[in-house]
Write a structure and sequence with these properties.
Elements: H1 2-5, H2 10-61, H3 69-79, E1 83-87, H4 103-115, E2 120-123, E3 130-137, E4 140-147, H5 155-196, H6 210-258, H7 265-287, E5 294-297, H8 298-309, E6 314-317, E7 323-326, H9 328-345, E8 349-355, E9 359-365, H10 391-394, H11 400-410, E10 414-419, E11 426-433
Parallel strand pairs: 6-8
Antiparallel strand pairs: 1-4, 2-3, 3-4, 5-7, 8-9, 9-11, 10-11
Helix pairs in contact: 2-4, 2-5, 5-6, 6-7, 7-11, 8-9, 9-11
The structure holds adenosine-5'-triphosphate and magnesium ion.
Length: about 425
């Protein structure tokens, strides 16, 4: 249940681990501060002002002491209360000026109600610096103008500033550090994902905490072992294919000599078939070799490939002077295999080259029988063919698309196999990073 609400990425999880205690601490501190310090001091302040007001009312009401009222008033006005006025024949303003959302006003109201026995009215908003407190005594109103600092404790704002600014600063620092700590994790995860898909992954430099470094070092070791294994396998495949070439050529020659009455035609076809297959194996192993990349004119290469097919059912749409960085021979092999498939299975091919914002795509589409959805992934596997019996007929080995996939992966690109939306055939899209 709680998993649903937890952040998914390691970065936000770590952040939560840092934020949660800070927030909790702040909440506790604020509650303690507000209750024990802020509210109590505010109440105390109002209480003392109310006591002074009570003393003045006492003098004002007392017949004998009243003679000294002016004296007492001046005494208070000197230091404690800014101004004391007697508003003759007046009553309290009829509207209530208590601001419900202000905690200050609430506290003041509470304390004045407790301390002052006469009807009172006050306004904390009319003046920026002063509070206006009025008391109704018989027909007159006593007005007290009190400086706000006498009823308010201004430390709340400072306290909040002190508690929020350092925690925001701390958070920013921890986000910075966290990002550096988390980066190696995501790089490792991305590289593992890419490597798993057979794409080229540059060597990772160990960085971060000891455990992450160790994981990166071990990943690199594993990667090297797998690559060595793959290259041994392809070397073996190409070795065998290469070795078979010579005896096959000899065989072909001998059949040629002996085949006077065409009785060996079938064997001859088989040998030719085997030759084709071996040529493909060699192609497959060479597609995995690493060579240097260069920048070349793709439009030239495309025209050259299409020209080589010499088939009027192939159309090419390619912008002029479009440059691609990669291994030219391998890209040529890719495009060749795709057009070869389209011609073989559909009899025609539509080739389109497009330049995107950060990629170049080569699309080969046809209007042939297409490939059912559940087979679209499988046809990329080595030796996988939809029609298993075809091998003997046309030299189809099932390596064409695997070669394409290997090459495109080693270029950091992608291959997509879709239905051709225009007509029911197949649409293969290669996209190379630009
Ligand atoms: N354009 C296409 N239309 C219909 N089916 C296709 C098309 N391209 C490929 N396929 C199917 O995918 C399978 C695998 O293709 P792939 O190019 O890998 O091998 P292949 O063409 O059979 O042999 P190879 O290319 O090695 O001579 C093919 O056997 C075919 O069934
Ligand atoms: Mg093919």
């Amino acid at each position: 249940m709680i998993k649903k609400f937890l952040p998914k990425t390691i970065f936000f999880r770590y952040l939560l681990i840092i934020i949660a205690p800070i927030l909790l601490l702040q909440i506790i501190l604020t509650i303690v501060f507000f209750d024990s310090l802020w509210i109590k001091t505010n109440k105390g302040l109002t209480k003392s002002v109310a006591a002074e007001i009570n003393a003045i009312i006492e003098v004002y009401n007392d017949k004998t002491a009243n003679k000294n009222f002016e004296f007492v008033k001046n005494l208070f006005e000197l230091s404690l209360i800014q101004e004391i006025n007697i508003l003759k024949d007046q009553s309290l303003p009829f509207y209530d000026s208590t601001f419900v959302y202000s905690l200050y006003d609430q506290l003041m109201d509470e304390e004045l109600a407790k301390e002052i026995k006469f009807p009172y009215w006050y306004n904390t908003r009319a003046n920026k610096d002063y509070v206006d407190i009025r008391i109704q005594i018989n027909k007159n109103v006593l007005q007290f103008i009190v400086h706000k600092s006498r009823v308010r404790n201004s430390s709340a704002r400072i306290f909040i500033l002190w508690i929020t600014i350092p925690s925001i600063l701390l958070l920013m620092i921890s986000i910075l550090f966290l990002r550096n700590q988390v980066r190696p994790f995501s790089i490792l995860a991305d590289s593992a994902e890419k490597f798993g898909k057979g794409q080229y992954v540059p060597e990772l430099k160990p960085s971060g905490a000891v455990e992450v470094r160790k994981a990166i070092i071990e990943f690199e070791k594993m990667k090297r072992r797998i690559l060595r294994h793959i290259s041994q396998r392809t070397a073996m495949l190409s070795g065998i294919s290469h070795d078979l070439k010579t005896p096959l050529t000899r065989l072909k020659l001998q059949i040629e000599i002996m085949n006077k009455n065409h009785s060996l035609d079938k064997i001859k076809d088989d040998v030719i078939e085997m030759e084709k297959m071996i040529a493909e194996y060699l192609d497959y192993s060479s597609s995995q070799e690493v060579g240097a990349s260069s920048k070349f004119d793709l439009s030239n290469l495309m025209t050259e490939i299409v020209h080589k097919f010499n088939n009027k059912n192939i159309t090419l749409k390619c912008p002029d002077k479009i440059y691609l960085t990669g291994k030219k021979q391998l890209v040529k092999r890719c495009v060749y295999n795709l057009i070869d498939n389209a011609i073989k299975y559909a009899g025609n091919a539509n080739v389109i080259v497009k330049k995107g914002t950060n990629d170049i795509s080569i699309i080969v589409e046809d209007d042939g029988p297409g490939v059912p959805d559940h087979e679209k992934d499988r046809i990329l596997r080595p030796f996988y063919k939809l029609d298993k019996s075809r091998t003997m007929v046309d030299g189809s080995v099932g390596l064409g698309l695997s070669i394409v996939q290997d090459i495109i992966n080693s270029h950091g690109g992608k291959i997509k196999i879709n239905d051709n939306p225009k007509n029911k055939g197949l649409k293969v899209t290669l996209s190379f990073p630009d």
